[in-house]
Amino acid sequence: MPYFKQPKHLQSLMLLQWPLSYLAMFWILQPFFIYLLFTSLWPLPVLYFVWFFLDWKTPEQGGRRSAWVRNWYAWTHIKDYFPITIQKTKDLSPEHNYLMGVHPHGLLTFGAFCNFCTEATGFSKIFPGITPHLATLSWFFKIPFVREYLMAKGVCSVSQPAIDYLLSHGTGNLVGIVVGGVGEALQSVPNTTTLILRKRKGFVRTALQHGAHLVPTFTFGETEVYDQVLFHKDSWMHKFQSCFRSIFGFYFCVFYGRGFRQGSTGLLPYSLPIVTVVGEPLPLPKIEKPSQEMVGKYHTLYMDALCKLFDQHKTQYGCSENQKLLFL
Questions:
Q1: Cα(171)–Cα(93) distance, rounded to whole angstroms?
Q2: What's the pLDDT at 13?
Q3: Which positions, given as ranges, span the membrane (predicted)?
Q4: 105: CB partners within 8 A, 6+ apart
Q5: What is the dihedral of CA 11, 16, 18, 24, to 10 degrees?
Q6: Taking the CA of residue 56 as centre, how many other CA atoms within 13 Å lie in the half-sphere pointing to its CB?
Q7: pLDDT value, residue 328
Q8: Which of 34, 142, 163, 322 holds its CA 20 to 30 A away from the CA of 154?
């Protein structure tokens, strides 16, 4: 029996678009609020923007999460569409803080979104006493309304001050960083396990400075839900993608999946299982100014732990016995 299943019902297909619909709605609200400035309702946008600037630093000071938003029923439909699940290999003690590496990035990071930004897969029950925060591009938090949506889901800025704050205020905080970043999105094609990690050591340095435990994770199936059109590095399209990233902070990827009808092509992801396996935490000493050698040592240990995690679970979740992680 093959591991992957057939697409779910149409209702889940429609609800899968909810996160993007919410973001689109927030984008629409911005010109609408500007329009209100020229009407009798002008105090509403004025009050919001005054509060917006007074609240400017909140995304870098723990954010403002909402249990209500994280428990929206829409997230359960999205989880069931693929389906998306999370697997624990070891308990995480609430007495420590954790810096979690999220691999791979994929195109839209469905696994990390559903597992760490919502309660659809039951994170709080699986890891009691642990508060997850998924880090994303800092400039998202400078956009009115979009920042409110992201903070409500427990998303934080990937900036150094935001991560330092979470790892130094209380315990039981889990900060997830997609280490490969947006550059890894261009590597996201089916049947590949290529990670941009070999030179990404900043997260290890941060973990050492706070004595936070490193947690490797790997999301099987993340790169299988879309096909992507890859362009040669010398092509004008690849140059456009690079230019786009320099302006907006992420790549303009050309990808496709399925449509609403069976066998059709569209922008909906393929209904294939996505499983995030959370590995055993790697304890780190607290060193205020770690040397390059110390950072390199624990970076190597982290890569070894990630490889071990992948090898232990790869055949269970659709990879061949001979498949290996490739670090760039």
A1: 9
A2: 46
A3: 35-54
A4: 178, 180, 181, 182, 184, 185, 188, 222
A5: -130
A6: 4
A7: 92
A8: 34
Tokens of 257: 């999946």
Q: Are 223 and 275 in contact (CB under 8 A)?
A: no
pLDDT digits (tens, 9 = 90+) for 294-324: 999 999 999 999 999 999 999 999 899 999 9
Give the confidence band of 244 by pLDDT, cuts at 50, 70, 90. Answer: confident
Q: Please give the average per-residue pLDDT across 50-63, as a whole number.
A: 92
Alpha helices in the chain (DSSP H): 10-15, 18-36, 43-54, 67-70, 73-81, 110-116, 123-126, 146-152, 160-168, 202-210, 236-248, 292-313
- Encoded tokens for 301: 């240990």
Task: For residue 104, say if its preceding peptide bond is cis, omega within 30 degrees of 0.
Answer: yes
pTM for this prediction: 0.88
Taking the CA atoms of residue 112, residue 153, residue 248 and residue 186 in that order, the dihedral angle to the nearest 10 degrees is 10
What percent of the chain clears pLDDT 70, i.e. is strictly above it? 91
Tell me the one-letter amino acid at 79. K
Q: Please list, in sequence order, all residues whose beta carbon lies within 8 angstroms of the beta carbon of residue 156, skipping any fewer than 6 positions away.
A: 59, 60, 62, 63, 133, 134, 135, 136, 162, 163, 166, 175
